[in-house]
Amino acid sequence: MKEANEARIRELLQRALPPAEAQLPRDLWPEMLRRLDQGAPARAVPWLDWALLAVVAIGVVAFPHSIPVLLYYF
Questions:
Q1: For 64, which DSSP code?
Q2: Average pLDDT of 41-55?
Q3: What is the dihedral sign for C-alpha 21, 27, 32, 35?
C-alpha cells in the first residue's frame, strides 16, 4: 500500500513540475550590458528613511545607553 502511494505521489509530482530546461531561451548578458551602459540615475532617498534616521539620532542623543542595543540589532 505504501509503495502504491509513493508511486502515485511521484507520478503527480512529475506531472505538476515539468523538467527544467538546462539552457535559457535567450542570452541575458547583452541586455545586462546595455542597461549598465545606460547608467541608471541615482534615486533620491525617501523622506521616511530620513525621518527614521532622525528618530534614531534623537533617541541616541536622549538615551546614550541605548547604543549597545542598537548595535546588537544592526
A1: G
A2: 89
A3: negative
